[in-house]
Design goal:
- A two-stranded antiparallel ribbon has the order 1-2.
- It is built from 3 helices and 2 strands, in the order αβααβ.
- The longest helix is centred in the C-terminal third of the chain and has 22 residues.
- The two termini are about 25 Å apart.
- It is mostly helical.
């Protein structure tokens, strides 16, 4: 599903996103982090809270990669 570009523009106007030209290493870093977090989320010895937090953080890393691939970054991301 492709997002409506107007939605992204609205997030820029609201101050949640800003334009960004990503480097390849940034995208790779987000994807690697997501992969590692998802691996950890599957560990049966981890607490349920820990597994949830790892899965949530993996989703966040994937969202960061997706925004950057579209030419944006969140205002609080590095």
């Amino acid at each position: 599903m492709v997002s409506n570009p107007e939605n992204l523009t609205n997030l820029v106007t609201a101050g949640a996103l800003r334009p960004h030209q990503p480097q390849d290493w940034e995208i790779a870093s987000h994807l690697e982090r997501a992969k590692n977090l998802l691996h950890d989320a599957k560990l049966k010895d981890a607490t349920l809270d820990g597994r949830y937090n790892n899965a949530y953080s993996a989703a966040h890393a994937l969202a960061q990669a997706a925004f950057k691939l579209r030419g944006f970054r969140t205002t609080d991301s590095r």
